[in-house]
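A quick aside before the break. I want you to see a complete sequence-to-structure record at least once, exactly as it would be stored in a machine-readable document. Don't worry about memorizing anything.
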Amino acid sequence: MSRLRLWQKLALLSALLLVLSGMALLAMQARQAVHHEQEVVQRLSLDLAAHIARRSELMDAGGMRNDAVRSLFGQLMAVNPSVEVYLLDTHGEVIGHDAPPGHLRRQRVDLGPLRALLDGAPLPILGDDPRSAGGRKIFSVAPLVVQGQLAGYIYVVLVGEQRQMLADDLATSGQWRATLWSAALVALAGVLAALLTFYWITRPLRQLTRRIEQFDVDAPVPAQAPEPLRPGTRDELAILNHAHARMAQRLADQWQQLREQDLQRRELVANISHDLRTPLASLHGYLETLAMKETTLSEQERRRYLAVALAQSGKVGALARSLFELARLEHGGVALELETFALPELVQDVLQKFELAAQARQVQLHAEFPPGLPLVCVDVGLVDRALTNLVDNALRHAQDASMVQVILSPDPAGVRVVVQDDGAGIDPSVGERLRRQSPGSGRGRGGNGGLGLLIVQRIVQLHGHALALEPSTHGTRFAFVLPHG
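That is the input. The structure line, written in tokens, reads:
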């Protein structure tokens, strides 16, 4: 059975049950046929014993007439070999018969069935068979009255010994053969019907099995979600197919996310390594120079080398702090402390931080916002950090004598924030990397710009939105939305 398919097992079991049911039905029909035949024969021969009792003088005042009994019983059984006639006394004792010697197995007949037949009980009624130690057969009975008194009973067994033997022989030769042929035909029809039925019913299950065997998480994600089930669907196989399709799509999506996260991790390690390599190499070089030429360097050169080394160590420290902050943001280590306030005030405070640096490069810092701007409900510290990163990033990459703008405008979801510079632009791939939450390349290299943008993206996401790199004719334009209060 282990080598058979599910539909084949179901078909064989169903065929077996069908054969067993068919055999049980045949047995019931055979029993019912015998019962019907017994009732018909007994009903037709119901008055046979009474006819014998009326037409014959079997007993007189002196008792039973043995010669008359044997002569009459012999004549009756010769005319109709299927019957056996007995004379019973009032207690059921057999006192007259024409059975061959040794064939009479029972000397007494139970009178209960006889009285039931005389009282008109439903047919068929079975009585004791004198020629069988435990057999019971249909019969006809009539009281034998002599001189106005009950002298005994005429007891006629309607299915005699000879007829029973002949019937058994015919049943052995014909009934079993018919039964076996019927069972074989039923089994054949049941197997064919079961094979076709279960092959058709289990076809969706076989298709599902093939899809499961062929499922590959590396395969492209399905272009569209599986079709929804029709309302009221109760087909378990259809529900199973739909559930598997949803599970396969979910697994493919999750696998794709895992691959993208692995790619992000690789890019993050590569970018951080690149960002750290330059300041560390510079720091190491200047410190090595100080160590090797300490006696030959002038005081002014020594101070200049130390200043450069301190500046490079500051860059390394800033990168370390950015990594620590990014880790906190990525792993849920930050709980938002929401406050409702006017965003233009925070923008002005952030721009004041960069006034001196902007004046040194003749870069104008400009904030633009309409009157009546709605309040926002955000974490002030995180939004301050996001704006600081964006303005610092724009200022470092803006051209001299250009402009960095922070533009605020109302949005259905809150307040829209745009940070625009007039620099050389940014690699368009950074927008895709921001979408995947990965540090960008291009202008992010050479500092902590890549990490800074990723920190901004995570802060904006914590507030329910996303950082977007919008197309611009010149420079770079970052935009995001903060929720209103």
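Two observations worth writing down. The two ends are 69 Å apart (CA to CA). The CA atoms of residues 285 and 419 lie 37 Å apart. We'll return to this after the break.
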